[in-house]
Amino acid sequence: MNDITVFPTIDDIMAAHQRIQPFIHRTPILTSEAINQIAGCEIYFKCENFQKVGAFKARGAANAVMKLTEEQKVNGVATHSSGNHAAALARAASVAGIKSYIVMPSNAPEIKKKAVAGYGGEIIECEPTLIARETTLKEVVARTGAVFIPPYDYLDVIEGQATCALEMWEEGIPFDTVMAPVGGGGLLSGTALTSKYISPKTNVIAGEPEGADDASRSFKAKELIPMVGPKTIADGLLTSLGKINFEIIMEYVDDILTVSEAEIIEAMRLVYERMKIIIEPSCAVPLAALLKNKERFKGQKVGIILSGGNVDLGKLPF
Question: Which intervals hold domain Tryptophan synthase beta chain-like PALP (predicted)?
């Protein structure tokens, strides 16, 4: 399938990791004996909930900004996002000393708007529809000359997200399976590239909510099926799978497992209770998928990326 797109190589991913060092934390890998006993396997949690801006998105945004030419940097960067990519891009731009213009839907959480403003991003509000977001973004780019940095369907962003799995593999753990959640597919496609380059026999498996299961349906149909009317507590996974991401997933991902809302909440609660760390609902989806399919992972060493910790504590589901 990659006759359409030239995917980042392992050398590209390693170069990206060097490039973004000043912008990111090297996040820890944590384990829980209690969760291992329940799951029947050894799980290694890569804690991107401790990352800058509270999510893995810091990686892709930093890489994309750092790869801009001096000429491109002059007019700054722009994107449309209601969540973590908005804050990640505003922060990366601020560190690079350039302007950022962030189109956000009027119903975006206040906490996300505050984060963007805190990093010096200029917020342009629009109606909460995809058409409004895209139209407003086009107007902003035309007015400012800023470079559009998409949240996931963009090679420089995928390359940056791939550095998370690179750090996992550098720990020397012989993973049988590596798992990540899937929404737009930036994290999953980057994780799959790194893992298959380093260890082709390792399984790469995604977790996805049943209420936003376009990646699973696309994967089975072998064609990109957009999501219409997604509904899930895992708000970071509401977006439809990107085109480039789909190409990479079809070539390098082994399976996509779906889980119910109750299973997501149960897995999220388990992490809060046993590990004493804050994760957002999207993070809990791969663990929920593993717990639902215990036999499949029995006795394995499984790496799970906890993608972020930006949760509204007033709206916890338990």
Answer: 20-308
Domain 76-145 has CATH 2.40.110.10: no
CA–CA separation, 208 vs 288, rounded Å? 9
Q: Give the start-to-end residue ranges of the domains of the chain.
A: 10-55+154-315, 76-145
Q: How many CA atoms lie within 13 A of 68 on its CB side?
A: 25
d(CA 64, CA 208): 26
CB 43, CB 290: distance < 8 Å: yes
Q: What is the CATH number of domain 10-55+154-315?
A: 3.40.50.1100
pLDDT in tens, 182-207: 999 999 999 999 999 999 999 999 99
Q: Other CB atoms closer than 10 Å to residue 243's CB: what's the count? A: 12
What residue type is 187 in one-letter code? L
